[in-house]
Amino acid sequence: MENTTSLQGRVALVTGAGQERGIGAAAAEHLARAGASVVVSDLVPTGAGGEEAQAGLEATVARVRAAGGRATEVALDVTDTAQIEAAVEAAVSTFGGLDVLVNNAGTGIGVGEFTEVTDDRWELSWLINVMGPMRLSRAALPHLEKQGGSIVNVASTAGVAAEAGYGAYTVTKHAAVGLTRLLAAELGPRGIRVNAVAPGMIHTDLGAAELELVAASTGATIEDATRSVVESIPVRRLGTPDDVATAITWLAQPGSYVSGAVVPVTGAMVAGLN
Ligand SMILES: NC(=O)c1ccc[n+]([C@@H]2O[C@H](COP(=O)([O-])OP(=O)(O)OC[C@H]3O[C@@H](n4cnc5c(N)ncnc54)[C@H](O)[C@@H]3O)[C@@H](O)[C@H]2O)c1
Predict the structure, then answer these.
(1) Per-domain residue ranges for the chain?
(2) Phi-psi domain of 80 (left: phi exceeds 0; alpha: psi -120 through 50; beta: other)
(3) How far apart, in whole angstroms, are the C-alpha atoms of residue 19 and residue 245?
(4) Which residues pair with residue 112 across a beta bridge?
(5) What is the CA radius of gyration of the chain?
(6) What pLDDT, on a 0 to 100 scale, did the predictor assign at position 270?
(7) According to the model, what pLDDT value does residue 272 have?
(8) Would residue 257 show up in a list of annotated catalytic residues for this protein?
(9) Which pLDDT score, from 0 to 100, does residue 2 have?
(10) Which CA distances in Å does 148 have to 91, 191, 194?
(11) What pLDDT sits at residue 102?
(12) Contact 238/228 with Cβ under 8 angstroms?
């Protein structure tokens, strides 16, 4: 019987994977542990922050290799179509194909009160959270269909429910869920499955920024805000990048019948209700 949890002989590309405690780096490691060769990518700005970003990418590659996996890194700004083409090409030229696309890169720059989020922030949120996954999916398509590949989009609970104050983040994550469902319907006949994960409160840099926001809006300290968020989560803890990476890797398994799903990774937190 085929081992359907194995990604042996498969190639994965993960976006936004250069942050040490991010979901992308954990996903790269988990996919590699399952047997995939991984192209680790992230935004590497020219100028300020560039060296640090490059070092972050190299650290993820080292982490994958330390876990016994194969990886290479590529600079990829998901708003740049030339870099998207180059990243897909890097997967094909380095590892011989591309079977799993994990659209993890995302921005919370559009979080805020509706009347306060500027057009620039709306537009950048749209470019990163929606156009990035759309363009990457389109560029990867000819390769994904070769041996029954899949796409996993990292959406959010903000993609399935609305909570006041989450602005363009909510709207663009809803669009990422819509993209997931559209592509699942349209690409299924071509042998490609498309799913999303909807993480809740995950302990990453972005998650920490969200806790700061909760603290600021309630006048509580970070510690108190974290405590009250944890108390509102039925499993009584924040999620970890590994929690999300486990779900991503499960969705990526070849031969699965799961497609068009939006899998909550929330500890049963219900977005918008707590
Ligand atoms: N942490 C949470 O609580 C949480 C909850 C729900 C959803 N998410 C989603 O999970 C994903 C990963 O977030 P994270 O929590 O690991 O935070 P993170 O900040 O560590 O990761 C975001 C990544 O996206 C990258 N990125 C931003 N703009 C980019 C661009 N233009 N091109 C390429 N990469 C770009 C960043 O460099 C970073 O590596 C995001 O899509 C986020 O919206 C996170």
Answers:
(1) 11-199+243-265, 201-238
(2) beta
(3) 14
(4) 166
(5) 18
(6) 86
(7) 65
(8) no
(9) 47
(10) 16, 5, 11
(11) 99
(12) no
Q: What's the gap in Å between 128 CA and the centre of ligand 1?
A: 10
- pLDDT < 70: residue spans in the chain: 1-5, 272-274
Spatial contact of 217 and 199, defined as CB atoms under 8 Å apart = no
Structure tokens at 121: 């922030």
What 3-state DSSP class applies to 237? Answer: coil
Query: What pLDDT is attached to residue 193?
Result: 98
DSSP structure string for 143-195:
HHTTTT-EEEEE--GGGTS--TTBHHHHHHHHHHHHHHHHHHHHHGGGT-EEE
Q: Report the CATH fold assignment for 11-199+243-265.
A: Rossmann fold (3.40.50)
pLDDT of residue 274: 42
Strand partners, 58: none
Measured CA to CA, the distance from residue 199 to residue 240 in angstroms comes to: 10
In this prediction, residue 214 carries a pLDDT of 87
Which residues have C-beta atoms less than 6 Å from ligand 1? 15-16, 18-19, 22-24, 42-43, 76-79, 104-107, 128, 154, 156, 199, 201-202, 204-207, 210
SS3 274: coil
Q: Which of 24, 133, 169, 202 is catalytic?
A: 169
What is the pLDDT, as a whole number, of residue 5?
62
Which pLDDT value is given to residue 217? 87
Atom number, ligand 1, closest to the C-alpha of residue 169: 43
Whole-number pLDDT of residue 1? 45
6 CA distance to ligand 1 middle (Å): 26
Mark 236-268 as b/e (b = at least 16 C-beta within 10 Å): eebbbbebbbbbbbbbbbbebeebebbbbbbbe
Tell me the CA–centroid distance for residue 130 and ligand 1, in Å. Answer: 13
